[in-house]
Here is the input.
Amino acid sequence: MIVLDGKKTAQEIKEEIKLKVTAMKGRGERVPHLAAVLVGNDGASLTYVGSKVRSCEQIGFESTLIRLEEDITEEALMQEIHKLNNDDTLDGFIVQLPLPKHINEERVLLAIDPKKDVDGFHPANFGRMALDLDAFIPATPFGIMQLLERYKVPTSGKHCVVVGRSHIVGRPISILMSQKGPAGDATVTVAHSRTQNLAELTRQADIVVMALGIPEYLTANMVKEGATIIDVGITRVTDDSHPKGYVIKGDVAFDEVAKKASFITPVPGGVGPMTIAMLLQNTLLAREWRD
Here is the structure.
């Protein structure tokens, strides 16, 4: 069994980006600039955005954090996005989700210029990705594809079951894994909360991608020997014995499933770190595509 180490792989990708940024500086070129918009004071969002800003500093990117009050109006937020769309010093920006309930997330995401949409959530980028054209791929699926490729996980002709159909993970990874490429050419089945024979499907799968959001849902009796298991789940589970009062759990019962798997991602330290690395990769692409 091989653990797909997202932390180590993400660091390798950051080092590769850092070399390119150093070369840009050496040529007197402007370095990539990423901005993050954070509305309110959600603890998890603060942690994620802080990690993204620190990663920018590590590799030599410019970064800007725009903090807005929880009670900002939707129109005022739209004006901020309009400013960022028209800021020529900026290559890409993200609006950290979730947004407060009084703001329409879909309207906000649609307002982002697709050329600066380094989260890859805009329909223009999703459509280009589906057509196998140059596009910003959503960072989590992009990270999964990089893990599969860099660890040389066999995917060609394999049966992949994706559990979850979100626009951020499930649907895009199902498209990417069916396309031609070093981590593609798989036969893909998309399952979800309404799928009636889920365990039967996962037991047939060579590759299982879990993006359901239910802690330790996938157990050993639901997978076959030698399967590749990708765990996208990340849930805080209350644990009074832990100093933080909670532990992070994935969608996979790791200890028991790992005994049957050929490749498996841990939680934490698997897909999570890759997500930030691929956001940085998208920002580098945004900078390069502007030339």
